Amino acid sequence: MLQQLLNDAKQEIKFGYLKKKHPFRYPVLASIEGNIPQQRTVVLRDATDGFKLVFFTDKRSPKVKQLNENPAASLLFYHPKKLLQIKVIGTMHCVEKGEEVARYWSKIQGNSAKDFSTAKAPGTPIKNPDQVDYLDEQHHFCILKLKPEAIEYLQLKRPNHIRARFSIHDDWRGEFLTP
Length: 179
Ligand SMILES: Cc1cc2nc3c(=O)[nH]c(=O)nc-3n(C[C@H](O)[C@H](O)[C@H](O)COP(=O)(O)O)c2cc1C
Description:
By secondary structure, the protein is of the alpha+beta class.
């Protein structure tokens, strides 16, 4: 049953990028700045064959600096209809160059590409929301890749809630936890 739960968790996460309206499309990503946790919503874009989770961002954004200094990261997925929460903990790295980055960038079009082409770095103060300038022919796109080291599954249901934890350190065999 534990392996079935792990497979279900991975399949549900894959639906996040395969199905447009799936709630797992928008997980919350936590990183650490100094000793303060920082969180933000991101769009899950893909998973690699080794189940590394892929996100897009601007390489000038504060989260990239935080992850370069401390790659520890955590993702929280929540499915309101299934009352299912999945936490993925691991290390996250920014990939700025190479064939893989070029391949993802080639699929981004129009207004979405503008998200990575602001003249000023994300988070720079401006006087009002109309005052955003964009770069021509230049962008700051990068991909973030999370390598999972632990996955925690929690589903609230009657008669018994189901909570289980899986870790790379025990070869993903997993164990049930008191919910
Ligand atoms: C629905 C939604 C989806 C978002 N998706 C992304 C995303 O895929 N990548 C990203 O860098 N920021 C995304 N953002 C913006 C982030 O939540 C965040 O505000 C921004 O990346 C700056 O984060 P940082 O200052 O911690 O680096 C999204 C925000 C919302 C509301």
